[in-house]
Design brief:
Layout (H helix, E strand, L loop, with lengths): L1 H5 L1 H4 L3 H14 L5 H14 L1 H8 L3 H28 L11 H13 L25 H13 L3 H12 L4 H8 L4 H18 L13 H6 L2 H8 L1
Length: about 230
């Protein structure tokens, strides 16, 4: 805690985010103590002083949004590690859904017809593949279907339009009386995001504390390797 105290004046303005995020994840991961999660989030500040300074220069609103995102990501990483330890499996065994996976599988979920799936993606082991080695497509369809049932009527409506009826975004704009195609696109994205969050969330990403210039100089393959 000594090092945290030394840096407290840097952390204190953002402590409300630490408390909020730690409380949120302590409710969902009961095997993790609230104070331990807070400590893990304080450590994020100590490891990322340059990133914090860079974000603070953007203004309080943008910095707050970026911090919420990164601290939630860090809390998820921490809690999943300890959940795995407590249940006796490895974090690497976890499977994370992507928007591309959910969007590709939704037509089959909504129509109960596997023939609507794109054949070229089935059985793929590449990053863009829907079914990779060790992942069971029937299980994935069942999991997405179970979450879909619990969505709001508004979310279900827009997902049916897009992924069952095959509406393009201009059609959704007209049917729902929206102003722009972007508004329709956002409706769909939010509904897909809610499915992913209820399936366990996105794969945690690793924050680095290099400056913007240094990140631009980092080869793309090194960045990719670090985040995987």
């Amino acid at each position: 805690m000594g090092l945290v105290k030394m840096q407290w004046e840097k952390i204190e303005p953002w402590d409300f985010i630490v408390v909020s995020v730690a409380s949120e994840y302590a409710r969902h991961y009961t095997m993790c103590d609230l104070e331990d999660i807070k400590q893990a989030l304080y450590e994020w500040f100590l490891k990322h002083p340059r990133k914090l300074a860079e974000w603070e220069q953007l203004g309080k609103k943008d910095a707050k949004n970026l911090l919420y995102r990164s601290l939630r990501n860090h809390a998820l990483d921490y809690c999943q590690y300890w959940k795995a330890k407590s249940l006796g499996y490895e974090v690497e065994d976890l499977f994370f859904y992507t928007p591309e996976m959910v969007e590709t599988l939704l037509p089959a979920v909504l129509t109960d017809n596997l023939e609507v799936l794109p054949v070229q993606n089935l059985g793929s082991t590449g990053k863009s593949g829907i079914v990779s080695e060790g992942n069971n497509m029937q299980t994935m369809l069942a999991e997405i279907g179970k979450i879909y049932v619990g969505l709001s009527a508004e979310d279900k409506q827009v997902l049916i339009m897009r992924f069952q009826l095959g509406y393009e975004y201009p059609d959704i704009v007209e049917k729902l009386g929206l102003n722009t195609e972007d508004a329709a696109r956002q409706r769909v994205r939010r509904a897909v995001k809610r499915i992913i969050n209820r399936l366990g969330g996105y794969k945690p990403q690793v924050d680095d504390d290099s400056s913007s210039d240094e990140r631009q100089e980092t080869p793309e393959e090194e960045i990719t390797a670090e985040l995987e």
